Amino acid sequence: MKKKLPLFIAIILFLLPALLHANPVTVKIVDQYEVPIPKLTIVENGKITELELAADGNCNLNISAPDSVILRAENYRDMTLPVTSLVDGSTITMHKNFSWKDLINPMFYIVYGGLWLLLFIIFAETGLFAGFFLPGDSLLFVAGIYSKNLGHEFLKLIGMGGVHNNLLDLSVIIVLVTIAGILGNTTGYLFGKKIGPAMFHWKDNLLFKQKYLYQAKEFYDKHGGGAIVIARFIPIIRTFAPIVSGIVQMPKSKFAFFNIIGSIAWVASMILAGHFLQQWIMSEFGFNLKEHLEVIVIGIVLISTLPVIIKLITAKKPKHPTTV
Q1: Burial 114-126 (b: 16+ CB within 10 A, else e)
Q2: Model confidence over 120-142: pLDDT tens digits?
Q3: Fewer CB atoms inside 10 A, N or C side of the chain?
């Protein structure tokens, strides 16, 4: 009997992982953009199992492999997981392969660039005259949806990683992005004040279109200082509005006032809309905006650029003055 005891213990130790995972566990499987994965292939000890996941990414797993399993999905990298990591209620993140469509998904920039890329894009949209192709409005809306991720990134940087508060995360993002927007506009204003008049004689290139500069000046002539606030909500116009303010020598104090008001209004409205609209739609209709970001981006771009499109279609060709 004593001789058989070590053999019995060895068998128990060998079978223990399988025994521990004999009961099904419920896990959630998403990609790096937090979008649920619809179909999954599980490979354990050469056995292949195909699974259809729930709409929210949840699935029941009954794993009997002693050591590890392989998770596979179309257009995703294979993932090898130790059986011990399959804990009931846990979330597993699989990596989706890159596709060019990802470039119109603001979540792509948030995942791979994080908070700092977000701040740079908001600054560059007016500070580096790159507002033609940067997704400012849609990026802020998505930042509101993912404010928890972005805000906590900054809190960890300043040693407050242990603090978990949604309102704090949201406030941090709004403050930081507002500062980036103010600095971007200020850079454009100073550039316009120093070099701006010469821009009316520049040739068109990838980052500069002379007609947009004239449209921004018309917009400023019509709305005055308030153009700085209104332009924040209009793509392309917001890139040139601070430059025009510098060209016409708007007083610094007046520009600073409208700049701060406009940046706060734009950033807060977009981020808060994304944050609370996501929560409300999810609770009322069970519809997850995170799963349809491409459609949301296209919708926001169309809505925000509609005034510009209408202007381009209906407006007569302006007579450009020879001097400014």
Answers
A1: ebeebbbbbbbbb
A2: 989 988 777 665 556 678 889 88
A3: N
Task: Report which secondary-structure segment, H or E, holds 41.
Answer: strand 39-44
Q: CA-to-CA distance for 73 and 230, rounded, in angstroms?
A: 46
- Domain of 32 in residue numbering reads as 23-94
User: How far is Cα 83 from Cα 21, in angstroms, rounded to an integer?
Assistant: 8
To which residue do tokens 């209408």 refer? 310
Same domain assignment for residues 50 and 127: no
**Looking at residue 62, which CATH number applies to its domain?**
2.60.40.1120
- On whether residue 300 sits in a domain, the answer given is yes
Q: Is 80 helix (H, G, I), strand (E, B) or coil?
A: strand
SS3 77: coil
How far does Cα 93 stand from its chain's mean position? 18
CA–CA separation, 302 and 210 (whole Å): 23
Question: Which residue's entry shows tokens 């296209």?
Answer: 298
* Residue among 193, 175, 295, 294 at smallest CA distance from 242: 193
